[in-house]
Specification:
homodimer; 199 residues; two-stranded antiparallel ribbon; disordered C terminus; DNA-binding
DNA sequence: ATTGCCTATGCAACTCGTTGCATAGCAGGA
DNA sequence: TCCTGCTATGCAACGAGTTGCATAGGCAAT
Protein backbone atom coordinates (compact mmCIF):
# COMPACT_ATOMS: atom_id res chain seq x y z
CA UNK A 1 0.00 0.00 0.00
CA UNK A 2 1.29 3.39 -0.92
CA UNK A 3 -1.51 5.76 0.06
CA UNK A 4 0.39 6.64 3.23
CA UNK A 5 3.43 7.41 1.14
CA UNK A 6 1.54 9.50 -1.38
CA UNK A 7 0.08 11.49 1.52
CA UNK A 8 3.52 11.93 3.09
CA UNK A 9 4.92 13.24 -0.18
CA UNK A 10 2.05 15.65 -0.48
CA UNK A 11 2.48 16.85 3.11
CA UNK A 12 6.21 17.27 2.62
CA UNK A 13 5.53 19.37 -0.46
CA UNK A 14 2.95 21.35 1.51
CA UNK A 15 1.29 20.72 4.91
CA UNK A 16 -2.49 20.66 4.84
CA UNK A 17 -5.75 19.32 6.24
CA UNK A 18 -7.49 16.13 5.19
CA UNK A 19 -9.87 18.17 3.13
CA UNK A 20 -7.06 19.99 1.35
CA UNK A 21 -5.32 16.68 0.66
CA UNK A 22 -8.53 15.31 -0.81
CA UNK A 23 -8.65 18.23 -3.20
CA UNK A 24 -5.02 17.73 -4.16
CA UNK A 25 -5.81 14.10 -4.88
CA UNK A 26 -8.63 15.28 -7.11
CA UNK A 27 -6.18 17.47 -8.98
CA UNK A 28 -2.48 16.98 -9.54
CA UNK A 29 -1.77 13.96 -7.37
CA UNK A 30 -4.89 12.21 -8.60
CA UNK A 31 -3.24 11.89 -11.97
CA UNK A 32 -1.01 9.19 -10.56
CA UNK A 33 -2.78 8.22 -7.35
CA UNK A 34 -6.47 8.44 -6.51
CA UNK A 35 -8.10 8.55 -3.09
CA UNK A 36 -11.42 9.68 -1.60
CA UNK A 37 -11.69 11.89 1.47
CA UNK A 38 -12.81 8.88 3.49
CA UNK A 39 -9.63 6.96 2.79
CA UNK A 40 -7.54 10.04 3.47
CA UNK A 41 -9.14 10.81 6.84
CA UNK A 42 -8.86 7.20 7.92
CA UNK A 43 -5.21 6.91 6.92
CA UNK A 44 -4.34 10.29 8.45
CA UNK A 45 -5.72 9.14 11.81
CA UNK A 46 -3.66 5.98 11.64
CA UNK A 47 -0.57 7.91 10.61
CA UNK A 48 -1.04 10.35 13.45
CA UNK A 49 -1.36 7.46 15.90
CA UNK A 50 1.87 6.02 14.49
CA UNK A 51 3.64 9.36 14.79
CA UNK A 52 4.22 9.68 11.04
CA UNK A 53 2.45 13.02 10.90
CA UNK A 54 1.79 15.80 13.39
CA UNK A 55 -1.58 17.52 13.56
CA UNK A 56 -2.37 21.05 14.61
CA UNK A 57 -5.89 22.38 15.16
CA UNK A 58 -6.35 25.62 13.29
CA UNK A 59 -9.33 27.86 13.98
CA UNK A 60 -10.57 29.75 10.97
CA UNK A 61 -13.18 32.43 10.76
CA UNK A 62 -16.13 32.03 8.50
CA UNK A 63 -15.21 28.39 8.21
CA UNK A 64 -15.09 25.23 10.30
CA UNK A 65 -11.87 24.55 12.17
CA UNK A 66 -9.42 22.32 10.44
CA UNK A 67 -6.63 19.98 11.46
CA UNK A 68 -3.46 20.81 9.56
CA UNK A 69 -1.14 17.84 9.22
CA UNK A 70 2.55 17.90 8.48
CA UNK A 71 5.05 15.12 8.00
CA UNK A 72 6.99 14.15 11.13
CA UNK A 73 10.47 12.61 11.25
CA UNK A 74 9.27 9.02 11.69
CA UNK A 75 7.12 9.54 8.60
CA UNK A 76 10.10 10.85 6.69
CA UNK A 77 12.11 7.84 7.80
CA UNK A 78 9.33 5.48 6.74
CA UNK A 79 9.21 7.17 3.36
CA UNK A 80 12.96 6.81 2.93
CA UNK A 81 12.74 3.12 3.86
CA UNK A 82 9.91 2.58 1.39
CA UNK A 83 11.95 4.26 -1.35
CA UNK A 84 14.62 1.61 -0.88
CA UNK A 85 12.16 -1.29 -0.98
CA UNK A 86 11.42 -2.89 -4.31
CA UNK A 87 7.90 -2.07 -5.36
CA UNK A 88 5.52 -4.87 -6.35
CA UNK A 89 4.45 -5.07 -10.01
CA UNK A 90 1.57 -2.69 -10.70
CA UNK A 91 -1.75 -4.47 -11.03
CA UNK A 92 -3.32 -3.44 -14.29
CA UNK A 93 -7.03 -2.87 -14.82
CA UNK A 94 -7.57 -1.82 -18.38
CA UNK A 95 -11.32 -1.90 -18.83
CA UNK A 96 -11.25 -0.58 -22.39
CA UNK A 97 -8.99 -3.44 -23.46
CA UNK A 98 -11.54 -5.90 -22.06
CA UNK A 99 -14.28 -4.11 -23.98
CA UNK A 100 -12.34 -4.23 -27.22
CA UNK A 101 -11.85 -7.97 -26.98
CA UNK A 102 -15.49 -8.32 -25.92
CA UNK A 103 -16.59 -6.49 -29.07
CA UNK A 104 -15.62 -9.57 -31.10
CA UNK A 105 -18.67 -11.34 -29.59
CA UNK A 106 -21.06 -8.48 -30.19
CA UNK A 107 -20.92 -5.53 -32.58
CA UNK A 108 -17.58 -3.72 -33.00
CA UNK A 109 -19.46 -0.63 -34.20
CA UNK A 110 -21.19 -0.38 -30.82
CA UNK A 111 -17.87 0.53 -29.23
CA UNK A 112 -16.98 3.42 -31.49
CA UNK A 113 -18.71 6.20 -29.57
CA UNK A 114 -17.29 4.91 -26.29
CA UNK A 115 -13.76 4.95 -27.68
CA UNK A 116 -14.36 8.43 -29.07
CA UNK A 117 -15.38 9.63 -25.60
CA UNK A 118 -12.17 8.20 -24.16
CA UNK A 119 -10.20 9.88 -26.91
CA UNK A 120 -11.75 13.25 -26.08
CA UNK A 121 -11.03 12.89 -22.41
CA UNK A 122 -7.41 11.92 -23.01
CA UNK A 123 -6.99 14.82 -25.41
CA UNK A 124 -8.36 17.19 -22.77
CA UNK A 125 -6.00 15.80 -20.16
CA UNK A 126 -3.03 16.21 -22.48
CA UNK A 127 -3.98 19.84 -22.99
CA UNK A 128 -4.20 20.35 -19.23
CA UNK A 129 -0.79 18.75 -18.76
CA UNK A 130 0.76 20.99 -21.38
CA UNK A 131 -0.80 24.11 -19.87
CA UNK A 132 0.29 22.99 -16.42
CA UNK A 133 3.80 22.50 -17.71
CA UNK A 134 3.94 26.03 -19.10
CA UNK A 135 2.50 27.47 -15.90
CA UNK A 136 4.57 25.54 -13.35
CA UNK A 137 7.82 25.12 -15.25
CA UNK A 138 8.26 28.27 -17.35
CA UNK A 139 12.04 28.09 -17.20
CA UNK A 140 13.18 24.51 -17.68
CA UNK A 141 16.81 25.56 -17.30
CA UNK A 142 16.33 26.73 -13.71
CA UNK A 143 14.69 23.91 -11.80
CA UNK A 144 15.67 22.71 -8.35
CA UNK A 145 15.69 19.02 -7.43
CA UNK A 146 12.08 18.93 -6.40
CA UNK A 147 10.93 20.58 -9.59
CA UNK A 148 13.16 18.39 -11.75
CA UNK A 149 11.49 15.32 -10.25
CA UNK A 150 8.00 16.76 -10.53
CA UNK A 151 8.76 17.61 -14.14
CA UNK A 152 10.00 14.17 -15.08
CA UNK A 153 6.77 12.71 -13.69
CA UNK A 154 4.79 15.24 -15.70
CA UNK A 155 6.75 14.32 -18.82
CA UNK A 156 5.69 10.74 -18.20
CA UNK A 157 2.06 11.82 -18.03
CA UNK A 158 2.40 13.78 -21.25
CA UNK A 159 4.02 10.91 -23.12
CA UNK A 160 1.45 8.49 -21.76
CA UNK A 161 -1.40 10.66 -23.05
CA UNK A 162 0.24 11.09 -26.44
CA UNK A 163 0.77 7.37 -26.77
CA UNK A 164 -2.79 6.69 -25.65
CA UNK A 165 -4.23 9.14 -28.17
CA UNK A 166 -2.30 7.52 -31.00
CA UNK A 167 -3.45 4.08 -29.87
CA UNK A 168 -7.09 5.15 -29.57
CA UNK A 169 -6.90 6.47 -33.13
CA UNK A 170 -5.59 3.06 -34.14
CA UNK A 171 -8.46 1.40 -32.27
CA UNK A 172 -11.01 3.67 -33.93
CA UNK A 173 -9.62 2.97 -37.38
CA UNK A 174 -9.76 -0.76 -36.68
CA UNK A 175 -13.33 -0.64 -35.35
CA UNK A 176 -14.51 1.41 -38.33
CA UNK A 177 -12.88 -0.95 -40.78
CA UNK A 178 -14.50 -3.95 -39.08
CA UNK A 179 -17.86 -2.18 -39.02
CA UNK A 180 -17.60 -1.53 -42.78
CA UNK A 181 -16.55 -5.12 -43.46
CA UNK A 182 -19.57 -6.28 -41.50
CA UNK A 183 -21.94 -4.13 -43.54
CA UNK A 184 -20.43 -5.27 -46.85
CA UNK A 185 -21.08 -8.88 -46.03
CA UNK A 186 -17.62 -10.41 -45.79
CA UNK A 187 -17.58 -10.40 -42.03
CA UNK A 188 -16.11 -13.77 -41.22
CA UNK A 189 -17.04 -15.12 -37.87
CA UNK A 190 -17.40 -12.04 -35.76
CA UNK A 191 -20.47 -13.52 -34.12
CA UNK A 192 -19.95 -17.25 -34.05
CA UNK A 193 -21.50 -19.03 -31.12
CA UNK A 194 -19.21 -22.02 -30.97
CA UNK A 195 -16.21 -22.11 -28.70
CA UNK A 196 -13.32 -22.46 -31.07
CA UNK A 197 -11.36 -19.59 -29.68
CA UNK A 198 -7.65 -19.33 -29.44
CA UNK A 199 -7.31 -18.53 -25.74
CA UNK B 1 -16.71 -3.94 -11.74
CA UNK B 2 -15.46 -5.69 -14.82
CA UNK B 3 -14.05 -8.96 -13.56
CA UNK B 4 -17.26 -10.73 -14.59
CA UNK B 5 -16.90 -9.26 -18.05
CA UNK B 6 -13.26 -10.18 -18.38
CA UNK B 7 -14.16 -13.75 -17.41
CA UNK B 8 -17.02 -13.81 -19.92
CA UNK B 9 -14.70 -12.68 -22.70
CA UNK B 10 -12.20 -15.34 -21.77
CA UNK B 11 -14.90 -18.03 -21.67
CA UNK B 12 -16.28 -16.91 -25.01
CA UNK B 13 -12.81 -17.14 -26.49
CA UNK B 14 -12.42 -20.58 -24.90
CA UNK B 15 -14.45 -22.41 -22.21
CA UNK B 16 -12.47 -23.52 -19.18
CA UNK B 17 -12.36 -24.27 -15.47
CA UNK B 18 -11.69 -21.77 -12.71
CA UNK B 19 -8.17 -23.05 -12.47
CA UNK B 20 -7.58 -22.62 -16.19
CA UNK B 21 -9.02 -19.11 -16.06
CA UNK B 22 -6.67 -18.29 -13.21
CA UNK B 23 -3.74 -19.35 -15.36
CA UNK B 24 -5.00 -17.29 -18.28
CA UNK B 25 -5.21 -14.30 -15.97
CA UNK B 26 -1.61 -14.94 -14.99
CA UNK B 27 -0.64 -14.91 -18.65
CA UNK B 28 -2.25 -13.08 -21.53
CA UNK B 29 -5.32 -11.62 -19.88
CA UNK B 30 -3.33 -10.58 -16.84
CA UNK B 31 -1.61 -8.01 -19.00
CA UNK B 32 -4.76 -5.92 -18.91
CA UNK B 33 -6.70 -7.41 -16.03
CA UNK B 34 -5.42 -9.21 -12.95
CA UNK B 35 -7.27 -11.62 -10.68
CA UNK B 36 -6.40 -14.36 -8.20
CA UNK B 37 -7.96 -17.81 -8.23
CA UNK B 38 -10.00 -16.84 -5.16
CA UNK B 39 -11.69 -13.98 -6.92
CA UNK B 40 -12.29 -16.08 -9.99
CA UNK B 41 -13.89 -19.00 -8.12
CA UNK B 42 -16.10 -16.63 -6.14
CA UNK B 43 -17.25 -14.71 -9.19
CA UNK B 44 -17.81 -17.91 -11.22
CA UNK B 45 -20.15 -19.24 -8.53
CA UNK B 46 -22.11 -15.98 -8.57
CA UNK B 47 -22.24 -15.95 -12.34
CA UNK B 48 -23.44 -19.54 -12.41
CA UNK B 49 -26.19 -18.67 -9.92
CA UNK B 50 -27.19 -15.76 -12.16
CA UNK B 51 -27.23 -17.94 -15.23
CA UNK B 52 -24.43 -16.04 -16.95
CA UNK B 53 -22.33 -19.16 -17.34
CA UNK B 54 -23.07 -22.87 -17.52
CA UNK B 55 -20.91 -25.40 -15.69
CA UNK B 56 -20.19 -28.98 -16.57
CA UNK B 57 -18.37 -31.44 -14.31
CA UNK B 58 -15.59 -33.14 -16.18
CA UNK B 59 -13.88 -36.23 -14.79
CA UNK B 60 -10.23 -36.53 -15.68
CA UNK B 61 -7.85 -39.33 -15.05
CA UNK B 62 -4.68 -38.78 -13.16
CA UNK B 63 -6.13 -35.45 -12.04
CA UNK B 64 -8.92 -34.06 -9.87
CA UNK B 65 -12.26 -33.47 -11.54
CA UNK B 66 -12.84 -29.98 -12.86
CA UNK B 67 -15.86 -27.81 -13.56
CA UNK B 68 -15.69 -26.45 -17.09
CA UNK B 69 -17.57 -23.21 -17.50
CA UNK B 70 -18.86 -21.68 -20.70
CA UNK B 71 -20.66 -18.43 -21.36
CA UNK B 72 -24.46 -18.70 -21.49
CA UNK B 73 -26.81 -16.43 -23.43
CA UNK B 74 -27.74 -14.21 -20.45
CA UNK B 75 -24.02 -13.67 -19.93
CA UNK B 76 -23.58 -12.75 -23.55
CA UNK B 77 -26.47 -10.31 -23.23
CA UNK B 78 -24.99 -8.81 -20.07
CA UNK B 79 -21.68 -8.38 -21.89
CA UNK B 80 -23.38 -6.66 -24.81
CA UNK B 81 -25.20 -4.32 -22.42
CA UNK B 82 -21.96 -3.51 -20.62
CA UNK B 83 -20.27 -2.76 -23.93
CA UNK B 84 -22.86 -0.05 -24.53
CA UNK B 85 -22.48 1.51 -21.09
CA UNK B 86 -19.96 4.28 -20.65
CA UNK B 87 -17.06 3.07 -18.57
CA UNK B 88 -15.92 5.01 -15.53
CA UNK B 89 -12.54 6.77 -15.69
CA UNK B 90 -9.75 4.36 -14.84
CA UNK B 91 -8.36 4.90 -11.37
CA UNK B 92 -4.62 5.29 -11.63
CA UNK B 93 -2.14 3.89 -9.12
CA UNK B 94 1.33 4.75 -10.31
CA UNK B 95 3.57 3.83 -7.41
CA UNK B 96 6.79 4.67 -9.21
CA UNK B 97 5.59 8.23 -9.83
CA UNK B 98 4.97 8.59 -6.08
CA UNK B 99 8.47 7.30 -5.41
CA UNK B 100 10.03 9.72 -7.86
CA UNK B 101 8.40 12.70 -6.22
CA UNK B 102 9.29 11.24 -2.82
CA UNK B 103 12.95 11.11 -3.84
CA UNK B 104 13.07 14.91 -3.59
CA UNK B 105 12.86 14.52 0.20
CA UNK B 106 15.48 11.81 0.43
CA UNK B 107 18.25 10.79 -1.95
CA UNK B 108 17.48 10.66 -5.68
CA UNK B 109 20.39 8.27 -6.16
CA UNK B 110 18.66 5.74 -3.90
CA UNK B 111 15.98 5.25 -6.56
CA UNK B 112 18.28 4.43 -9.45
CA UNK B 113 18.53 0.69 -8.94
CA UNK B 114 14.78 0.44 -8.42
CA UNK B 115 14.09 2.27 -11.68
CA UNK B 116 16.63 0.07 -13.43
CA UNK B 117 14.76 -3.01 -12.22
CA UNK B 118 11.52 -1.63 -13.60
CA UNK B 119 13.25 -0.87 -16.87
CA UNK B 120 14.46 -4.47 -17.16
CA UNK B 121 11.04 -5.88 -16.43
CA UNK B 122 9.36 -3.63 -18.99
CA UNK B 123 12.01 -4.52 -21.57
CA UNK B 124 11.35 -8.21 -20.91
CA UNK B 125 7.61 -7.72 -21.28
CA UNK B 126 8.07 -5.88 -24.56
CA UNK B 127 10.14 -8.78 -25.86
CA UNK B 128 7.40 -11.23 -24.82
CA UNK B 129 4.77 -9.12 -26.56
CA UNK B 130 6.79 -9.02 -29.77
CA UNK B 131 7.39 -12.77 -29.69
CA UNK B 132 3.72 -13.35 -28.94
CA UNK B 133 2.80 -11.16 -31.87
CA UNK B 134 4.96 -13.19 -34.23
CA UNK B 135 3.62 -16.47 -32.86
CA UNK B 136 -0.11 -15.61 -32.75
CA UNK B 137 -0.39 -13.25 -35.70
CA UNK B 138 2.09 -14.50 -38.32
CA UNK B 139 -0.01 -13.21 -41.20
CA UNK B 140 -1.35 -9.75 -40.40
CA UNK B 141 -3.19 -9.61 -43.73
CA UNK B 142 -5.42 -12.56 -42.88
CA UNK B 143 -7.02 -11.88 -39.52
CA UNK B 144 -10.66 -12.41 -38.66
CA UNK B 145 -12.58 -9.96 -36.47
CA UNK B 146 -11.61 -11.60 -33.24
CA UNK B 147 -7.94 -11.62 -34.13
CA UNK B 148 -8.06 -8.03 -35.39
CA UNK B 149 -9.38 -6.93 -32.03
CA UNK B 150 -6.91 -9.04 -30.06
CA UNK B 151 -4.15 -7.58 -32.18
CA UNK B 152 -5.14 -3.96 -31.67
CA UNK B 153 -5.08 -4.58 -27.90
CA UNK B 154 -1.65 -6.17 -28.25
CA UNK B 155 -0.45 -3.16 -30.27
CA UNK B 156 -1.56 -0.99 -27.37
CA UNK B 157 0.50 -3.11 -24.99
CA UNK B 158 3.53 -2.88 -27.25
CA UNK B 159 3.27 0.89 -27.61
CA UNK B 160 2.74 1.27 -23.88
CA UNK B 161 5.90 -0.68 -23.13
CA UNK B 162 7.93 1.28 -25.69
CA UNK B 163 6.71 4.57 -24.25
CA UNK B 164 7.42 3.36 -20.73
CA UNK B 165 10.95 2.29 -21.62
CA UNK B 166 11.70 5.67 -23.15
CA UNK B 167 10.29 7.42 -20.10
CA UNK B 168 12.25 5.25 -17.67
CA UNK B 169 15.42 6.14 -19.57
CA UNK B 170 14.46 9.78 -19.14
CA UNK B 171 13.88 9.18 -15.41
CA UNK B 172 17.24 7.44 -15.07
CA UNK B 173 19.06 10.25 -16.85
CA UNK B 174 17.38 12.78 -14.57
CA UNK B 175 18.17 10.83 -11.40
CA UNK B 176 21.82 10.39 -12.43
CA UNK B 177 22.17 14.07 -13.21
CA UNK B 178 20.68 15.03 -9.84
CA UNK B 179 22.91 12.52 -8.07
CA UNK B 180 25.99 14.06 -9.74
CA UNK B 181 24.83 17.57 -8.93
CA UNK B 182 24.39 16.48 -5.32
CA UNK B 183 27.93 15.10 -5.15
CA UNK B 184 29.44 18.20 -6.75
CA UNK B 185 27.91 20.42 -4.13
CA UNK B 186 25.54 22.66 -6.04
CA UNK B 187 22.46 20.75 -4.97
CA UNK B 188 20.03 23.54 -4.15
CA UNK B 189 17.22 22.67 -1.88
CA UNK B 190 16.68 19.01 -2.41
CA UNK B 191 16.14 18.65 1.30
CA UNK B 192 14.39 21.80 2.40
CA UNK B 193 11.93 21.46 5.25
CA UNK B 194 9.68 24.38 4.50
CA UNK B 195 6.40 23.98 2.69
CA UNK B 196 6.80 26.02 -0.44
CA UNK B 197 5.73 23.28 -2.80
CA UNK B 198 3.40 23.82 -5.68
CA UNK B 199 0.91 21.08 -4.84
C1' DA C 1 10.42 -42.90 1.81
C1' DT C 2 10.20 -38.25 1.71
C1' DT C 3 10.06 -33.94 -0.30
C1' DG C 4 8.35 -30.81 -3.35
C1' DC C 5 5.51 -29.44 -7.21
C1' DC C 6 1.22 -29.47 -10.12
C1' DT C 7 -3.81 -29.73 -10.76
C1' DA C 8 -8.18 -28.33 -8.77
C1' DT C 9 -11.32 -26.22 -5.54
C1' DG C 10 -12.53 -23.93 -1.55
C1' DC C 11 -13.05 -21.50 3.49
C1' DA C 12 -11.99 -17.76 6.74
C1' DA C 13 -10.17 -13.59 7.99
C1' DC C 14 -8.53 -9.52 6.77
C1' DT C 15 -7.49 -5.01 4.46
C1' DC C 16 -8.55 -1.71 0.99
C1' DG C 17 -11.70 1.17 -1.28
C1' DT C 18 -16.39 2.96 -2.24
C1' DT C 19 -20.97 4.81 -1.21
C1' DG C 20 -24.44 6.87 1.31
C1' DC C 21 -25.40 9.58 4.85
C1' DA C 22 -24.79 13.06 8.86
C1' DT C 23 -23.31 17.26 11.03
C1' DA C 24 -22.55 22.19 11.03
C1' DG C 25 -21.63 26.92 9.92
C1' DC C 26 -21.33 30.21 6.29
C1' DA C 27 -22.07 32.44 1.56
C1' DG C 28 -24.65 33.59 -2.49
C1' DG C 29 -28.47 33.60 -5.51
C1' DA C 30 -33.67 33.00 -6.80
C1' DT D 1 -36.88 32.38 2.57
C1' DC D 2 -35.36 28.51 0.71
C1' DC D 3 -32.15 26.18 -1.97
C1' DT D 4 -27.77 25.22 -3.40
C1' DG D 5 -23.02 24.84 -2.69
C1' DC D 6 -18.58 25.15 -0.21
C1' DT D 7 -15.52 23.98 3.77
C1' DA D 8 -14.47 20.39 7.06
C1' DT D 9 -14.84 16.02 9.36
C1' DG D 10 -16.70 11.74 10.32
C1' DC D 11 -19.70 7.05 10.92
C1' DA D 12 -21.59 2.76 9.09
C1' DA D 13 -22.13 -0.63 5.78
C1' DC D 14 -20.78 -2.85 1.93
C1' DG D 15 -18.09 -4.79 -1.86
C1' DA D 16 -13.66 -5.82 -3.92
C1' DG D 17 -9.31 -7.86 -3.45
C1' DT D 18 -5.56 -10.28 -0.79
C1' DT D 19 -3.44 -13.77 2.16
C1' DG D 20 -3.03 -17.86 4.56
C1' DC D 21 -4.44 -22.16 4.94
C1' DA D 22 -6.83 -26.77 3.84
C1' DT D 23 -7.90 -30.77 1.11
C1' DA D 24 -6.66 -34.33 -2.04
C1' DG D 25 -4.67 -37.12 -5.58
C1' DG D 26 -0.79 -37.76 -8.82
C1' DC D 27 3.95 -37.04 -10.55
C1' DA D 28 8.94 -36.74 -10.47
C1' DA D 29 13.19 -36.44 -8.37
C1' DT D 30 16.37 -37.31 -4.38
Amino acid sequence: MALEHAILVSLLEQPGSGYELARRFDRSIGRFWTATHQQIYRVLRRMEADGWVAAEEVAQDGRPDKKVYSAADPGRAALAAWLREPVEPETVRHELAVKIRAAAFDDPAALISEVERHRESHAALLTRYLHGEQRDFPDLAALDTRQELQHVVLRGGIEFERMTLAWLDDVLATLRRLADDGRNGHGDGDDRRDGTGNG
